[in-house]
Amino acid sequence: MTASADIADRLAALIAAEGPIPIERFMAESNTHYYATRTSVGAAGDFITAPEISQMFGELIGLSLADLWDRAGRPDVAYVEMGPGRGTLAADAFRAMAVVGLRPPVHFVETSPLLRSHQREHFPDATWHDTIGTLPTDVPLLIVANEFFDALPVRQLVHTFSGWRERMVGYGPDGFAPVPGTAPRDDKVAEHLRDAALGSIVEDNPAARRLARALARRIAGQGGALIAFDYGHKGGSHGDTLQAVHAHAYADPFARPGMSDLTAHVDFGALRRAGVSGGARGFGPVDQGQWLVALGLSDRAAALGRTAPDRADEIAIAYRRLTHPDEMGSLFKVMALAAPGWPDPAGFA
Ligand code: SAH
């Protein structure tokens, strides 16, 4: 039996025994299996992320952290990355930070043993954490998250003839499919959305909100900042944004649990409010393209082009992919949280 059949069988057996399970649980179980077993990120994997497109992405994040740290008076700090993937972003950021003398200890929050082994190749001395609970408590934290919050499980509510219900996943002759739950959930839907057309879906990410609030509490208490990049929106209702990617193509999110990357658009408005409720100051979201250009992407691309003229085309393509509104430039957003006593992160004015 293959590993993927294993998780599909396990979820099918669970549903047969207990009835349909919430989408939130299906997504969590599928992703835990997926990241632990598949080469997810990179050309040979299922999807490409900004740090895998160009070294410039991680370098500019490193520069932004170094700038913030410098203006904060160069305290002892720890670098924290949530879901670092192959460790590429951190490796590029550390090259840029070292130029100004910032070489903090590295803490990775990563649940996948497979991805931890990739990260170890770049950072043999890092400390790995399953959750943020074990992160250091005695120094300010510089926290980075790229395409992390989008992988956390969403909860969906659907408007049916009998009222609002949680959207669940059932299992039948045609495999896994969404079905409405039986318990009324009208009280979980914001009042202005309750009369939405039948079939409307409202999505929420309780896990992302809890985490943003918990990280904000850490920052507010210890000092530091968080900077998060993801595809998403500023808030409001966007319906069902759950999607699956397998081998660089969209797939049915329910068809093969554990075999494709399940993500949902990040509601940055909700994340920022969660962060502010945890005691941090909020910045953004702004479009990723705008932020990268504000941080000096054009100069960095020109400088790279001068030192490696043979790579000029590749650099121009990467620049376009990272910044153009038709590519990652405006679908992707950047948001920051900072401790009350810390300076404002650059690029959000
Ligand atoms: N930041 C990387 C990888 C993005 S993929 C990049 O930009 O290339 C999502 C990452 O988050 C993976 O490393 C995955 O293993 C990790 N991840 C997903 N859910 C997680 C969770 N609940 N706790 C910790 N890490 C998680």
Model description:
The protein is α/β, with parallel strands linked by helices and 349 residues long. It has one domain (36-153, 204-338): Rossmann fold (3-Layer(aba) Sandwich), CATH 3.40.50.12710. The protein has eleven helices and 16 strands. The strands form three sheets. Strands 2, 3, 4, 5, 10, 14, 15 and 16 form an eight-stranded mixed beta sheet that branches. Strands 1, 6, 7, 8 and 9 form a five-stranded antiparallel beta sheet that branches. The protein has a three-stranded antiparallel beta sheet with strand order 12-11-13. Helix 10 (297-307) runs antiparallel to helix 11 (312-323). The protein starts with a helix and ends in an 11-residue tail after the last strand. The mean pLDDT is 95. The structure holds S-adenosyl-L-homocysteine (SAH).
Which CATH class is shown?
Alpha Beta
Give the SSE string: HEHHHEHEHEEEEEEHEEEEEHEHHHE
- Which small-molecule species are bound to the chains here? S-adenosyl-L-homocysteine
Specify the structural class: alpha/beta
List keywords for this structure.
38% helix; binds S-adenosyl-L-homocysteine; eight-stranded mixed β-sheet; five-stranded antiparallel β-sheet
In short:
The protein has 349 residues and is α/β, with parallel strands linked by helices. The chain has helices at residues 3-18, 23-37, 50-53, 55-71, 88-99, 113-122, 206-222, 268-277, 288-294, 297-307, 312-323, and strands at residues 21-22, 78-82, 106-109, 127-129, 141-146, 155-160, 163-172, 175-184, 201-204, 224-233, 243-246, 249-251, 261-263, 266-267, 281-287, 332-338. It has a single domain, classed as Rossmann fold, CATH 3.40.50.12710.
